[in-house]
Amino acid sequence: MTKSILDSLTPGQLQRKVDSFFARCDKKKEDYSITGLALYLGVSRVTLLNYSRTDRFYHIIEMAKLRCENLCEKKLLQGTPPTGAIFTLKNNYGWSDKVEIDQTIKGTISLSSLFDRANEIQQAKVIDGEIEEPKPAELPAELF
Predict the structure, then answer these.
(1) pLDDT tens, 100-144?
(2) Can you tell me the distance from the alpha carbon of 144 to that of 139, in angstroms, rounded to the nearest whole number?
(3) Which of 22, 84, 95, 131 is the most exposed place for a label (fewest CB within 10 A)?
(4) What is the pLDDT of residues 13-29, one digit of tens each?
(5) Angle at CA of residue 86, ends 85 and 91, nearest 5°
(6) Which long-range contacts (CB under 8 A, 24 or more apart) does 41-50 make?
(7) Cα torsion angle, 19, 24, 29, 32, sign
C-alpha cells in the first residue's frame, strides 16, 4: 500500500473524523456514502476500502460502511425509488437477489463399468431402424 493521509492518523483520530463526517451529513441532510466519506478523509474510495482490511482501522471503517449500508436499506424500505440503493447494495455490500442452487452429487463412479456399458451400446444391432440392444443387466452397484 502506498502512503496515505490515513497513515498519519491514530485509530482515535480516524474515529473522530468519521464521526465528524456523519454529523456533517446529518446537519446538511445529505446521504451517507463510502465515496463521500473517502472524499471527506482526502483519500480515494479504493484506498479507504484497502485500509478497512488492516487490523488498525478494520472496526472503524467497517462500522462506517455499515452505517452507509443501513441508509441504503432504509431508503428501500421507505419507498424511495430503489434503483440507486439496489445498485449500491449489490455492488458495494455484497447483496444479491439471485438464487444459487448447489447441485453437487457425491459418490464414486467406476470408469471400467462405464466403459463396459459403452461397449455394450456400441455392439447393439440395428434392425428396421431401431436399435436392439443386448438385454442389459441392471447397472452394477459399484457404478454408483
Answers:
(1) 787 787 777 778 887 887 777 777 665 666 666 656 556 666 665
(2) 9
(3) 131
(4) 999 999 999 999 999 99
(5) 100
(6) 41/5, 41/6, 41/14, 41/17, 42/5, 43/4, 43/5, 43/6, 47/1, 47/4, 47/6, 48/6, 50/1
(7) negative
pTM of the model: 0.61
pLDDT computed for residue 58 by the predictor = 93
Q: Which three cell numbers stand for residue 80?
A: 424511495
CB neighbours of 60 closer than 8 A, spacing ≥ 6? 11, 14, 15, 18
Q: Where are the domains of the chain?
A: 5-93, 111-143
- What the block records as the C-alpha cell of 46 is 479504493
